[in-house]
Amino acid sequence: MKKYINFLCVLILALTLIDLVMSIFFSNNESSDRVVLKNITESQLLLLFGFALVVLGCLITAIVSFIKFILNINRNEVFTRKNISLLRWYAAATLMASVCLVLIGHYFPTVLDLGVEEIIEGVIEGAFALLIAEVFSIGMKLEEEKKVAA
């Protein structure tokens, strides 16, 4: 059973990374000959760099949290506070990255041309991770009640 769960989690992580790379590098922009940083002041460039660093930090946090979560599941530590915390970190990082990408797309449309689909994907992924964290929280409470009753 663990092999199937590991395979599923690695597949989810790989598909998420592939989707990210494809959406950044292979977007179908019709005006590919435009200058990306045209008419951007130095302060706007610093703001753009700051948003990009936040997105990078959020993506690293999400990946590390997800991998730690999978490793905990492999150790048969399923319904624990640590896993709930890791899932919440993953969700928060995913939602924060989505918000920053929306802000970059809004303020710098020549740099990042996001569609509604990409924005909704990130929000749904973060909301789903929060939902799973709450399910794990309920499972942990039920497990604690079972131990007290026994």
How would you describe the overall organization of this protein?
The chain is mainly α and 150 residues long. Helices cover 79% and strands 0% of the residues. The protein has helices at residues 2-25, 42-74, 81-107, 116-149. Helix 2 packs antiparallel against helix 3 (81-107) and helix 3 (81-107) packs antiparallel against helix 4. The chain is elongated, with a radius of gyration of 19 Å.
Highlighted features:
150 residues; single chain; mainly alpha
Write a brief caption for the model:
The protein has 150 residues and is mainly alpha-helical.
Secondary structure elements and their pairing?
Elements (H helix, E strand, L loop, with lengths): L1 H24 L16 H33 L6 H27 L8 H34 L1
